[in-house]
Amino acid sequence: MSSYNSSRRYSNSRSYSSSSGRSRAQQHIREAEELSERLGGSDEDVKQYFFNLPQAQLNVILTEYGRKHNRPTKNGIPNAEQYARQTFQRWASGERKMSGKVAGRLFDLLPPKMPLSDKYRLIDKLWKRHSPRSNLYVHVGLDAHVNDFVGDIKEHLEKAVVSYTIPAPLEARFTWISSGDVSVKQQLLNHFLHQEHQLISQGLDAKMPILIENFRQFSQNTLRLSETITVGGHSVEILFDKTQNGVSVSKTRPASHYTSSSSGSGCFSVILVAMTLFGLCGFYMFR
Q1: 241 — phi, psi (to 5°)?
Q2: Which of 98, 100, 222, 269 has CB 3.0 to 4.6 Å from 32, enough for a Cys bridge?
Q3: Helix axes 168-177, 182-221, angle to 10 degrees
């Protein structure tokens, strides 16, 4: 009887311990997910920023962390600040995983003490991933002049930026890094929108002379051709066609005999390559 009761107590204890462990693990997962969501779905860059802080800045953060989260110590257990200082190198090396709760508390102390340049840097990667994107197709006839459609391209790209809606991950990062300060949040957004405008303006100004030169050669060498301009997340495909008149602009690719393989990656894709070599069978000639 005594043996049975002892066995049952051991079994119940082991079951409780297992259940408690699962509960803690699930809680850690929830906390990590909540932190990742608050940081915009990409917390690795924030971790790297924290682990690479100069010692003086790190001391300020850890002292503030202790002021907010220290509890009276007992039985020699270190308080929050002591534990963070003792464990920092193991966190940084990956030897020990930082819990979502601790990481959240530490990371939330960063933005108010972060230089504006660092805030830009911590948003930049997410911005590039979620920045405004658009596609435009410009059908150009032989009678059109390049100035007839350059304005349409610029207008389209400007509207794409102005009408841009911030997606949830980027919104979360703006909110976290501005510490809830609406004016700071707007300042950060304005910075990136201005960058987007500058990218479009400078990109088109740099690429248009090449486009004009190719346009001049177009009628002499081939029947149809396609050229693609890529500026940031925006793609503009210009479809030249001897059989068409005027200019038409669309957000969907017009049905045609074009089979362009050109692509851009922050540069102008010149696709009149080898036209003089192949004459009427030029690289981008279509029947």
Answers
A1: -145, 115
A2: 100
A3: 140
Q: Where are the domains of the chain?
A: 2-113, 129-281
Q: Is residue 269 within 8 Å of residue 234, measured between CB atoms?
A: no
**Cα separation of the two ends of the chain:** 96
- Give 188-234 as a DSSP string: HHHHHHHHHHHHHHHHHHHHHHHHHHHHHHHHHH-SEEEEEEEETTE
Q: Is the pTM of this model over 0.85?
A: no
The string of pLDDT tens digits covering residues 119-149 is 999 999 889 888 898 898 988 887 877 777 7
pLDDT in tens, 111-127: 999 999 999 999 998 89
Cβ contact 228:235 at 8 Å: yes
